[in-house]
Amino acid sequence: MPRADYDVLIIGAGLGGTSLALRLAESGQQVGLLAKKQVTESSSNWAQGGIAAALGDDDSTEQHAADTYTAGGTLCHPDTVERVTGQAPASIAWLQQRGIEFTRADQGEGLHLTTEGGHSARRVVHAADATGQAIMTTLLAQAQAHENIHWHEGLLAIDLITTARFGEEPNRCIGVYALDSQARRVRTLTARTVVLATGGASKIYLYTTNPDTSTGDGIAMAWRAGCRVANLEFVQFHPTCLYHPMAKSVLISEALRGEGGILVLPDGTRFMPEHDERAELAPRDIVARTIDGEMKRGGHDCVYLDISHKPADEILNHFPNIAQRCASFGIDITRERIPVVPAAHYTCGGIMTDLEARTDILGLYAVGESTCTGLHGANRLASNSLLECLVFAEAAHGRILADLNDLGPTEIEVPDWDESRVTDPDELVVVSHNWEEVRRFMWDYVGIVRTNKRLERARNRVELLQEEIAEFYGNFRVTSDLIELRNLALVAELTIKSALARHESRGLHFNRDYPDSFPDEQTADTVLSPAWY
Ligand code: SIN
Q1: Would you call 184 a catalytic residue per the annotation?
Q2: What is the mean pLDDT of residues 259-269?
Q3: Which of 254, 284, 369, 386 to mutate to test the pocket of ligand 1 (most atoms within 8 A of CB)?
Q4: What is d(CA 527, CA 351) in angstroms, rounded to the nearest whole number?
Q5: Tell me, what CATH number does 68's domain have?
Q6: Is the pTM value of this prediction over 0.90?
Q7: Any atom of ligand 1 within 6 Å of the Cβ of 383
Q8: Number of structural domains, the chain?
């Protein structure tokens, strides 16, 4: 297999990876860009709601920052929040300069701003109800046309190559081994710098709004290479995923509630106002937990989201894609209520980075959902994630350009992937069974409401599974399912350990054995380091 060698190797082609690739390519760098599946299979591409930016006359970046803190259970890092919310208007302008058309206000020149839970003003910029697709279609076309960007679609990163493997200190990241699933060969890609932009890990749960690609690959690879991770117990469950036997991962955007949608029980009773004065627009942790409680209390399979009281043309104008998706399952959202359940949606924790996207390893950077930058704290404010991708991609661009002055090509002769001691797997059923098992016990034991007993049970299961997976990995040729399972199980284990380490309930982490929150000044990020294990 031919080797590839780049200035910057970016793993992941969502908004963080693609916008960074464009910036670096336009600064003259040779960029390798890896997408493990089709480039449309990213959470960025699937994003419906939009991007939060204080653009309205009644809004300010300070107010956006304050809402981010409040939603984040005050665990957010002030410098990160200030940076990201402060740069939001410029990030929207950057996208517009690149040709992205956002929905405009009915009257006047400005953009239409919608709202979602936890926002005190209308500030969500959107392209109807398919904002991610509108952005990614344009940026991917530009990145695919750029001569400095070298695409590797269908290449799944297995492990980072670091100089510590060869006894060279300080430890530096110099590439990655990646499986070419079609050729069934492992390739070696080397680079002066490497960026993880692999997205989150919501596939550790049985039910998720995410594409199949969200298997926590970057978090797992960074951990195995020696990076710290933080706050993985904070898994955001989106309150409204379509509940239908034929539907898989169909999100019903929070913007529906922003535009007047209400949540009701099967008998039509509205229930959110009695739980929170912000009703359907309370932050997501509260709405998801309330729905979960109502479903358990009443023994309901789902609750319902109803926007049918609004004029049909308004609904179809704002939510054409959701209306069409629901129609394909026989639900007319202009006349009928939509059956919904909460599902895993966003990984608030991840690889620890500084404000310039640096990780613990020299030459290794991370952006987007795979990271913990301090922005989201204990619960991400809706529509802050695409924003985080844009702001940190810009910061990473500046940092990498500066670092490339010092990080020359490495002298190390990186060996090819060694397959001399493995054979073809004989029992792939073990892999598919373990996939199912990990996702099921995470859903049952590490879900919206947790207890110490359930968490301990999950820890025992995941440790056993890890042993089985390690044995399989050591003896058999790698497949994409095995690589992803190895990552899923590791991120599941780190999530469980983080949850066990937090002896309070805060934001998205609710443990019945510790129902209270510590005073704000006594709480802290949950940091795990590979050096301790
Ligand atoms: C949504 O449209 O409800 C999702 C937006 C987000 O997760 O930020």
Answers
A1: no
A2: 97
A3: 254
A4: 10
A5: 3.50.50.60
A6: yes
A7: yes
A8: 3
